[in-house]
Amino acid sequence: MRPILYHKLGNFELWFLSDGELWLDGGSMFGIVPRPLWSKLAIPDEQNRVRLGLNPLLIRARNHLVLIETGIDRKADEKFRRIYGLSDTNPLLGQLALLGVEPQDISLVVHTHLHFDHAGLNTRWVEGRLRPTFPKARHIVQKQELEDALHPHERSQASYRLENVEPLLEEGCFEVVEGEAEILPGLQVLPAPGHTLGMQVVELASEGQNLAYTGDLVALSAQAPLLYIPAFDLYPMTSLQTRKRLYERWLEGRYLLCFTHEPGHPLGRLMRTEKGYQAEPVYL
Ligand SMILES: [Zn+2]
Fold first, then answer.
1. Is the dihedral of CA 83, 84, 87, 89 positive or negative?
2. What are 3-27's pLDDT values in tens digits?
């Protein structure tokens, strides 16, 4: 398991956490890119799966502890865990405990979207009932994303699990936003449609430094080239437009990027080269 990385970005304290790993079909991760190209960047196993990380981010901002994403759902059955190569327990809770953080200390959770590999620890079993894992947190999500998670269509229903959504809804934990929104001073969400219609990225800005948490817009540094869009994306042409818009912003503001599914070191920066956009790792 990757150790916790700590970084101070202006007034924010950041801990780049890990919720372990997940294995997904390599072809699906790289869309129209031929295997001879992508397999140099992410080495497939005998089932053609590539290894992905799960990289939630913990932020201390004034008197708030904010969690960006809650890792992957390990409540499902053994077959589900085998398909995605999952361990039995959620490393995320152990990492929070190492930092002395109890689930009830989290006051805000920000969701890029509600797929099971991003919102999996929203709930856990407590005395035979599914309860919110972070009971005191407001859970920020785009209105569109919550609607789609509650009423998924055939193409997206395997990606959402109601058990990560309904208990929070019943207990009034969600706070929906529509479009761009400032959640705390210097912490904002921006719509990033494509992977899903309601996906958002999370940005931090403090003392001239910027960071973006990429969600599944560009989940791996190897996916940075403009057309390396996963086949999982529901609206790939929208992903392309969103990438063009946000890439320019991230280049101009010299954003540090946290790649949501990077299996190794999760931090990087975009570059524009003669071959197009690429990402380089950043070691702090
Ligand atoms: Zn994902």
1. negative
2. 999 999 999 999 999 999 999 999 9
What number is the average pLDDT over the span 253-267?
97
Q: How far is the CA of 145 from the centre of ligand 1 (A)?
A: 14
pLDDT of residue 88: 86
Distance 9 CA to ligand 1 centre (A): 25
Which pLDDT does position 183 carry in this prediction? 98
List the CATH number of the domain containing 132.
3.60.15.10
Going from the Cα of 205 to the center of ligand 1, the distance in angstroms, rounded, reads: 24
For ligand 1, the distance from its centroid to the CA atom of residue 207, given in whole angstroms, is 30
Does the pLDDT value for residue 174 go beyond 80? yes
Question: Among 44-58, 83-97, 129-143, whose mean pLDDT is lowest?
Answer: 83-97
- What is the domain range of residue 31? 5-281
Q: What is the mean pLDDT of the chain?
A: 97
Provide the number of structural domains found in the chain: 1
* pLDDT over threshold 80, residue 261: yes
- CA 190 to ligand 1 centroid distance, Å: 17
β-bridge partners, 175: 140
